Amino acid sequence: MTIRTIQTAAIPGQKPGTSGLRKKTAVFMGHHYLENFIQAIFDSVGAKGKTFVLGGDGRYFNAEAAQVILRMAAANGAARVIVGQGALLSTPAASHLIRRHQTDGGIIMSASHNPGGPTEDFGVKFNMPNGGPAPEAVTEDMYIRTTQMTQYQIVDAQDVPLDKLGLDDLAGMVVEVVDPVADYAVLMEQLFDFAAIRAMFAGGFRMRMDSMCAITGPYAVEILEKRLGAPAGTVINGTPLPDFGGLHPDPNPTWAKPLMDEMFSQSAPDFGAASDGDGDRNMVVGRGIYVSPSDSLAVLAANAHLAPGYRGGLKGVARSMPTSAAVDRVAKALGIGHYETPTGWKFFGNLLDAGLATLCGEESFGTGSDHVREKDGLWAILLWLNILAVRKQSVAEILAEHFAKFGRNYYSRHDFDAIETAKADAMMAALRGRLADLPGTRLEGMEIVAADDFSYADPVDGSISTAQGVRVMFKGGSRFVMRLSGTGTEGATLRLYLERFVAGPGDLDHDPQDALAPIIRAAHVLAGIEAFTGRLRPDVVT
Ligand code: G1P
Ligand code: ZN
Fold first, then answer.
1. How large is the average pLDDT for residues 382-399?
2. How many other CB atoms sit within 10 Å of the CB of residue 507?
3. Residue 511 clears pLDDT 90, i.e. is over it
4. Cα dist from 533 to 343, 429, 491, 540, whole Å
5. For 358, which DSSP code?
6. From the CB of 278, is ligand 1 less than 6 Å away?
7. Which of 44, 90, 112, 364 is catalytic?
């Protein structure tokens, strides 16, 4: 087999965002596009003699991209690549494999919750030897290399058969095809009380798991149905498809509407859950009651000690800034530290590595712990199951008790998609320019007590991240936050995060949109959303 050096030229715009490089599939399939970015990764982290993990969420182009990446890894001198069978790996399972085999990192092919298919999205991200997403300094270095790219290396070879387990040789590099589920399932068995959950299912407890035709299907069938004894058919949309069956594999009330409808119907099972394209996100729903991700994080933090893996208690908790402060109050009650980080999972990695936090989460349906260095959809679902099995209460009862004890943060996020970038930028700039004048202002009967643009000093490495989102805080713990998405692939996406604190139990049936109405109006007035962008109504409300 020969190694070929292909002359190429820099391709503009290969700048990885908060979760790697994400583009339209056709862009990724374009001439040298994938190759240039993969060469930038290997040039940046070095490939000679190294071992990497490789897998993806199975979306369109996953299998072809895997073959290119393997041929380039071999040409760049990698010693070994551990690949999930069929080139499949959920993001958390990839993170676990990287850690378990102490590899030099891994390449994950996914555009997460973005739809897949020839006209949809594809993505590639690099995870570090700790199993977590590459930090900004590393992705920035990769980006700079893409701008200077002149050549890449690839071997001429047949496709490596990735459908059968075992070892193969590719131009001197070992390709090890592993079961994508096995190691991950063992890890879950170590963390959770499988016997208690099995007994709960045996006792008639019923759940619905919607894998949204994405990667968690095989994981959920193996763990929930085979190992925990949930009835066959508990998992729906369980076969990963290249276009996710045309679904938008993002587990939220909008995109997982069939699950929501079932959970609010007469025949609702006890518990419902869904996960996203690459398996790192989760949504949980009780019978007739939705659990917001911010509340889910708080409930998990308050009850984690009921699971064997967390019996010793939590070292601390962390949440992204736009996530509600519900978990902070749990941390105070537990007497543990709580951290507020910028949006994006990578900021949690340092806290987890340093042992400052055990649990972390984001309002965007991401929850996880120090068992891997990614958020983990099935993990969160299993922790909920463990808690339900031990407490022997319904989701609604657990939430009601939680709110009564800790108070309630009504919460919602409004997304305005595909805004013209210049308009969104102008709106944010105008808002930022007024922040200093806002404290003391009254709006909708509420007083603004503080307004800033969030910046974060990492307590572990001291790095500073500025301009992470505008926060406007009202007296009494209400607030709104505005930032532009770092993961969208079309124009700009404005995210408006709304939160209102009510001491005591609140009313379980109170629609958060009603509870938040004054804050929604205040945000629109202050930022001039309609005047700048022409948008009044959000595209997605979660
Ligand atoms: C979004 C979420 C963020 C999450 C990221 C990756 O990023 O808001 O919490 O970490 O996807 O899943 P955004 O598009 O807001 O930059
Ligand atoms: Zn994801």
1. 98
2. 12
3. no
4. 23, 13, 12, 16
5. S
6. no
7. 112
Structure tokens at 41: 């990764």
C-alpha 485 – ligand 1 centre gap (Å): 7
Quick one: tokens of 460? 């572990």
Task: Find the 113 Cα to ligand 2 centroid distance in Å.
Answer: 5
Classify 143 as helix, strand or coil: helix
Q: Which numbered ligand comes closest to the C-alpha of 320?
A: 1
Q: Which amino acid is at 254?
A: T
pLDDT in tens, 224-277: 999 999 999 999 999 999 999 999 999 999 899 999 999 999 999 999 999 999
Residue of 485, 490, 497, 539 to mutate, ligand 1, most atoms within 8 A of C-beta: 485
Neighbours of ion ligand 2 (CB under 5 A): 112, 276, 278, 280-281
Over the stretch 297-309, which tens digit does the pLDDT of each residue have?
Answer: 999 999 999 999 9
Q: Which residue has a Cα nearest atom 8 of ligand 1?
A: 364
Q: List, in order of start, the domains of the chain with CATH numbers.
A: 2-180 (3.40.120.10), 184-406 (3.40.120.10), 408-541 (3.30.310.50)
Angle at 23 between CA 21 and CA 26, to 5 degrees: 135
The DSSP symbol for 241 reads: -
Kindly give the number of the ligand 1 atom that is closest to the alpha carbon of 483: 15
Nearest CA to ligand 1 atom 13: 485
Longest dimension (CA), the chain: 73
- pLDDT bin (cut points 50, 70, 90) of residue 411 is very high
Question: Is a pLDDT exceeding 90 seen at residue 505?
Answer: no
Instruction: Identify whether the C-beta of residue 130 lies closer than 8 Å to the C-beta of residue 37.
Output: no
Distance CA 297, CA 326 (A): 8
Kindly list the distances between the CA atom of residue 341 and the CA atoms of 287, 362, 375, 468, in Å, as whole numbers in the listed order: 32, 10, 14, 9
Query: What is the predicted pLDDT for the residue at 504?
Result: 77
CA dihedral 216, 197, 312, 286 (to 10 degrees): 70
CA distance 372 to 379: 10
Q: How far is the CA of 360 from the centre of ligand 1 (A)?
A: 14
pLDDT at position 163 over 90: yes
Q: How far apart are CA 474 and CA 455, in angstroms?
A: 19
Question: Token pair of 438, please?
Answer: 């806002």
Whether 44 is catalytic:
no
